[in-house]
Each structure stands twice: as structure tokens, then as C-alpha cells.
């Protein structure tokens, strides 16, 4: 399902940093309250309440986990007005090209396709602590570490949009599609290969996947070779069903292009596809058989809107919400009439990385080069400390970006180390480190030579895109120049998105360091990005202590909470001390919801409560409000 493969999505979205209370402000408030109590005893109860509130605020400041959950509670909105009967939710998709339109969880590859079908056709399970998979009104999940199994029990009432029951084969067939030799998608990976019998089925040695059994028509048992923590986050699990009887006659190699997937997919979610203009728009109609209850609105219409037209469309009240809001209009949203505007954290981070080796395609592993230009750790640390990323976040992004501290984002609240060491802005210390490493200005031109006295130029790759990309890269280059480092843009200019990743992934010798971003998805395990065998470990850094920490994160021992927490801390420590990669930003983005939507929940919905689903949506007017 979606939680497994979004881990490696190359998205330019990042996650939030927690807002801390101002201690100086609290002290000033306390001084004022003391004066009030002396001057007017009638104010005593009120000021006692204020003092209690200050104590609460200070406690939240001291407890970032509590602050995090309070921030999530602030992403739930109730608007005035009485709900009307029915109505159509209007959704704009900020996209400058046609959408693909593969409406099937095992087969789609475009994030916009998921934006369309995630809340309409699926949302099968609930979101547990730290984004773990959790049972819902559709499925019960039983994770058995001792037996290395997950038992999936289909609940009564979990039905297809035609009223027929979801059965075990509808779960099993997902595995048979992905593991099929003629599968055309991208989901067959190491997590699927950890299912007993999956590799034999994929190679054609077996007709069934031996590790997937169905004791009855409502139960599926998935047997794993190793039971590691990623399974709790959905690694190797496929829980959104596909209607076997509906698609069984379509060869797997043709399934992604079939009418059953592209034009008339069956749904177990609150809505079902009703009308489609390929690449342009899709309309969904209420599914009266939805297990969570029939939707309160009648329809949802989603359509492509060019990014340049988004703001004007919102001002005209054309949409209730926009997916993938363009960053270029964030500053102009606050005064938007008829909408609630809010900041939402993203599951991702920006980072800068240093090229330290090569990918060995034959051995399928990273190979560290001890003689790489950027091999000196003090050089890397100095580069990390030379740029004021807090200032960039404020000046260029109006506070929506804040400097990162750990490569485990704060959204993984029980695994993120809120006290982790980080490279804060300190240009004087950066100069000292460069001096210690032997990078000194020999010829007096203001730029440091390498330890051998030779000219030293760092080739830096940064992506083109948006109005801020160029000035930010120049700010960074100027900051590095101020500590004596000569840094130039690789290729002489910012690099277009696809070309950028082609160069970085293929270890282009023109690149010594680069800045990019990772979408983490909902699985915190960093193995897919930083292990010795991870192709996406594009710094190519390999280290025994790092391998040990990553192995412990992914080991069965890490099923123990304390063991897992320490393994993540050790990962942080190794990455900080070696600095092959350092996080530059966590990021919020602004989103909007029209005030005619009675209730809207934009939180991550972590914990024991049932998730918010779109069958709960209600509208208070026939069209989006503009006042």
C-alpha cells in the first residue's frame, strides 16, 4: 500500500519543526501578574489561571512530544453553518500537465493519481502511533512477532461498491499481481521478497506464494522470513484490496492499461469513480456500501488547474481545496476570503550531501572512496556550519522552513531525537575547522587552497525551479565564500529536476556536493536511503558504525521500543559525526479549506482514535464561499 513505496519518492516537500514558547515572554507575563495581584485582589483568580496556563506552556516547551500533539490538534477545523443535503466537493489539482489516471494501488506510479483515489477509493486502515498500521472498521491486524506473521481479518460490512463482500482472495491477489513475473509496476522490492515464497512465485518456480494462506474466506495470514519493525509500518503488507473476480481475466501485464483500472475501477472507499475526462477531470459519486457509513455529500469533482491559475481560482471561489498548493503563492493566501488558511507539516526534509564514493552496479552496493575531494570530515562540517539556514527559512520562505537537526523528521515523534546534535550556523567555528584541516589561503586571493597548496574549487549541484532557487543558491555560495571556500554551480547553472537526479544518481564527476530533498513516507526506517546496499544512498557513504546502527534499526531486536529508540539515536550520532549528509530544512506548507466545509481534519491522525474519512464531509452551501 501507499505507506511502503513513498519512502523513496523524490519530492520537494518537507516536514514541520515545533514552535517553542518564548521564555522571556513568560517571565514578563509573570512579573505583570505579580503586580496585578498586589494592586487588585479581585484579579487573583484570573491571574492564578494565567499562571497555570504559563506553567502549561512551559511544560509544553519542555516536552516537545506534547507540543507536537497539540500542534496536530490545531489542524482540525469546524466551520459555522448548517449542513445542506448532498452537494459536491470541488477539488483543484495544481498540475501543469495531464494526470496519468491509473486507479489501482498496486499499479499507479504518479502521486497525483494517489491524490485522487487515496481518500475516495481506499483509506482502509487507521493510522497508529508514529504512523504504524492500525486496525480499522474494515480490517483487524494481528502482528505476531514470535510466529513472524501478520493475520488480516476482514470485518463484516467491508464491501465493494456493488454491495458484494470483500473476501480473502481480494487481499491475496494484490501479492500475486506484484510478485508476478510479468508485473509492470514498481512495488516488487525487498519487503515483498521477505514474504515466504514470494521470490519463488516471482521466478516462476511456484504457482502460489507459500507464505500467504487463507484459513477461511475472511482471513489472510502473511508469513515473513524475518519479522522486523518496518512490518509494523506496512513493509511487505498489502491491505487495500483489489476485486479478484472483476480483474482475474485480465493478464497482469495488461492490467495497468485495462478499463478495470483506467475507466471503471471498483471501490471499497466512500466514493466510486463515476465520470472521467482522461487527464483533465474525474468525478466520484457516493458509495452507499462504504463500511464506515454512507457519505453525507453526493459527489466529489476533481480537475486539473494550471499552477499559475490557482490563486485566481481560489479568489473566485471555484474550489473547496487545492492539492499540491504551489509554493509561489503561499504569501498571498493569508488574506483569502471564504477560506481557512493553515500550515501543515510534510513528511520530508531538505538536505545537502557530499559525493564520497561510487555505486558499484555489478556488486549492487556503494563503495566509499577515501580519496574523494570531500573526504575530509572537517571540511564537510565547516560547510554545514557556514550557512545560516534559519535566515533562509525566514527571508525566502517566511518561516515555513526551519533548519533540520536530524535525518529522522519530528513527525516520527517517538523516534526523532529532539536533543540531537546539529550543525547550527557558526562561521567562525567553520573557519577554525578549515584551518585545522589544512585548507588555508596560500596566495592571498581570499580563497583557501587544499592541504597540498593546490587551487580548491567545489562543484555544487542545485535544482532549478521556482523564483527562490537561484537567490538561495547564491546566498549559500556567498556564505561559503565568506569562510574562504570557492564554490561554483556544477554545469554553471541550476539543473532541471530530471537532469539533476540523472547526474546525482549516476555519480557525475562534475558534482562534489548537492542539495536535494527526500519524501520519507510514513516508514521512519532510514535503511533505504543510507545503507551500503541502498542505491538512493547517493552520497555513497559507507561506514561500519553506520551499518551497525542501520542493521539494528531493521533487526528483529528492534521490535523492543528501547532497543529501537537507541538504534535511531546511534544512527543520528554517526551521521552527525561523519556529516556525509546534513539536513537543511524541515518544512511546513500552507493549505486552504473553504469555510462551507463543515468539518475538516488535516492532522496526521495519530493514536487510538479512528481516522477522519471523507464520508464524514458535509457542506453548508451550494458553492464555495468567497466572503
Furnish the topology, listing elements before pairings.
Layout lengths: L1 H4 L17 H17 L4 H19 L1 H10 L2 E3 L9 E7 L16 H7 L8 E2 L5 E2 L4 E6 L4 E6 L13 H11 L11 H4 L4 H6 L8 E5 L2 E5 L20 H4 L11 H4 L8 E7 L3 E6 L12 E7 L4 H6 L5 E3 L15 E7 L2 E7 L2 E4 L4 E4 L8 H9 L3 H7 L5 E2 L24 H11 L19 E5 L7 H14 L3 E4 L7 H9 L7 E7 L7 H4 L13 H10 L7 H18 L2 E14 L4 E3 L26
Parallel strand pairs: 2-11, 2-12, 18-19, 18-20
Antiparallel strand pairs: 1-22, 3-4, 5-6, 6-8, 7-8, 9-10, 10-11, 13-21, 14-20, 14-21, 15-16, 17-21
Helix pairs in contact: 2-3, 3-4, 12-14, 18-19
What this model shows, in words?
The protein is an alpha+beta fold. It is 28% helix and 19% strand. It has 19 helices and 22 strands. Strands 13, 14, 17, 18, 19, 20 and 21 form a seven-stranded mixed beta sheet that branches. Strands 9-10-11-2-12 form a five-stranded mixed beta sheet. Helix 12 runs antiparallel to helix 14 and helix 18 runs antiparallel to helix 19 (561-578). The longest helix has 19 residues, at 44-62. The protein is globular and about 80 Å long. 42% of the residues are buried.
Amino acid at each position: 500500500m501507499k505507506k511502503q513505496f513513498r519512502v523513496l519518492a523524490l519530492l520537494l516537500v518537507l516536514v514541520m519543526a515545533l514552535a517553542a514558547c518564548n521564555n522571556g515572554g513568560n517571565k514578563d507575563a509573570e512579573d505583570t501578574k505579580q503586580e496585578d495581584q498586589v494592586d487588585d485582589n479581585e484579579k487573583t483568580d484570573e491571574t492564578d489561571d494565567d499562571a497555570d496556563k504559563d506553567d502549561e506552556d512551559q511544560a509544553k516547551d519542555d516536552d516537545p512530544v506534547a507540543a507536537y500533539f497539540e500542534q496536530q490538534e490545531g489542524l482540525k477545523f469546524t466551520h459555522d453553518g448548517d449542513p445542506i443535503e448532498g452537494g459536491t466537493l470541488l477539488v483543484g489539482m495544481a498540475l501543469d500537465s495531464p494526470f496519468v489516471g491509473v486507479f489501482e494501488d498496486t499499479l499507479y506510479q504518479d502521486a497525483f493519481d494517489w491524490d485522487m483515489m487515496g481518500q475516495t477509493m481506499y483509506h482502509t486502515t487507521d493510522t497508529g502511533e508514529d504512523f504504524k498500521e492500525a486496525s480499522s472498521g474494515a480490517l483487524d491486524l494481528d502482528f505476531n512477532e514470535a510466529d513472524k506473521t501478520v493475520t488480516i481479518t476482514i470485518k463484516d460490512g467491508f464491501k465493494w461498491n456493488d454491495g458484494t463482500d470483500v473476501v480473502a482472495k481480494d487481499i491475496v491477489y494484490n501479492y500475486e499481481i506484484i510478485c508476478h513475473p510479468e508485473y509492470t509496476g514498481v512495488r516488487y522490492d525487498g519487503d515483498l521478497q521477505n514474504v515466504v515464497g514470494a521470490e519463488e512465485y516471482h521466478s516462476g518456480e511456484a504457482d502460489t506464494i507459500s507464505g500467504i494462506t487463507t484459513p477461511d474466506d475472511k482471513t489472510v495470514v502473511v508469513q515473513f522470513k524475518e519479522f522486523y519493525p518496518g512490518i509494523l509500518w506496512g513493509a511487505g503488507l498489502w491491505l487495500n484490496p483489489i476485486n479478484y473476480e472483476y480483474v482475474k481475466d485480465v493478464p497482469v501485464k495488461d492490467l495497468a492499461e485495462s478499463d478495470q483500472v483506467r475507466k471503471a475501477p471498483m471501490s471499497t472507499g466512500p466514493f466510486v469513480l463515476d465520470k472521467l475526462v482522461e487527464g483533465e477531470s474525474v468525478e466520484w459519486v457516493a458509495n452507499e456500501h462504504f463500511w464506515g457509513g454512507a457519505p453525507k455529500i453526493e459527489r466529489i469533482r476533481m480537475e486539473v488547474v494550471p499552477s499559475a491559475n490557482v490563486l485566481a481560482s481560489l479568489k473566485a471561489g471555484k474550489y473547496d481545496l487545492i492539492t499540491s498548493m504551489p509554493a509561489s503563492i503561499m504569501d498571498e493566501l493569508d488574506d483569502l476570503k471564504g477560506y481557512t488558511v493553515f500550515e501543515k507539516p510534510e513528511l520530508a526534509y531538505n538536505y545537502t550531501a557530499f559525493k564520497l564514493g561510487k555505486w558499484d552496479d555489478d556488486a549492487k552496493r556503494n563503495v566509499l572512496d577515501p580519496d574523494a575531494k570531500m573526504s575530509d570530515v572537517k571540511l564537510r562540517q565547516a560547510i554545514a556550519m557556514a550557512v545560516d539556514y534559519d535566515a533562509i527559512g525566514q527571508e525566502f520562505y517566511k518561516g515555513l522552513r526551519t533548519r533540520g537537526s536530524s535525518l529522522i523528521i519530528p513527525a516520527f515523534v517517538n523516534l526523532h531525537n529532539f536533543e540531537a546534535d546539529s550543525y547550527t550556523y557558526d562561521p567562525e567555528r567553520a573557519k577554525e575547522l578549515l584551518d585545522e584541516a589544512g585548507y588555508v589561503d596560500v596566495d592571498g586571493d581570499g580563497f583557501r587552497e587544499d592541504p597540498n597548496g593546490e587551487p580548491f574549487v567545489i562543484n555544487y549541484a542545485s535544482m532549478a525551479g521556482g523564483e527562490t532557487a537561484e537567490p538561495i543558491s547564491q546566498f549559500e555560495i556567498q556564505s561559503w565564500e565568506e569562510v574562504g571556500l570557492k564554490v561554483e554551480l556544477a554545469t554553471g547553472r541550476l539543473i532541471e529536476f530530471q537532469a539533476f537526479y540523472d547526474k546525482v544518481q549516476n555519480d557525475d564527476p562534475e558534482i562534489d556536493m548537492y542539495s536535494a530533498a527526500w519524501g520519507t513516507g510514513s516508514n521512519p526506517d532510514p535503511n533505504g536511503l543510507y545503507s551500503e546496499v541502498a542505491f538512493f544512498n547517493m552520497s555513497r557513504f559507507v561506514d561500519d558504525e553506520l551499518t551497525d546502527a542501520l542493521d539494528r534499526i531493521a533487526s528483529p531486536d528492534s521490535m523492543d521500543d528501547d532497543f529501537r529508540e537507541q538504534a535511531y539515536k546511534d544512527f543520528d550520532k554517526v551521521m552527525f559525526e561523519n556529516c556525509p549528509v546534513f539536513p537543511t530544512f524541515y518544512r511546513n506548507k500552507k493549505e486552504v479549506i473553504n469555510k462551507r466545509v463543515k468539518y475538516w481534519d488535516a492532522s496526521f491522525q495519530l493514536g487510538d482514535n479512528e481516522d477522519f474519512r471523507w464520508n464524514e464531509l458535509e457542506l453548508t452551501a451550494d458553492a464555495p464561499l468567497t466572503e
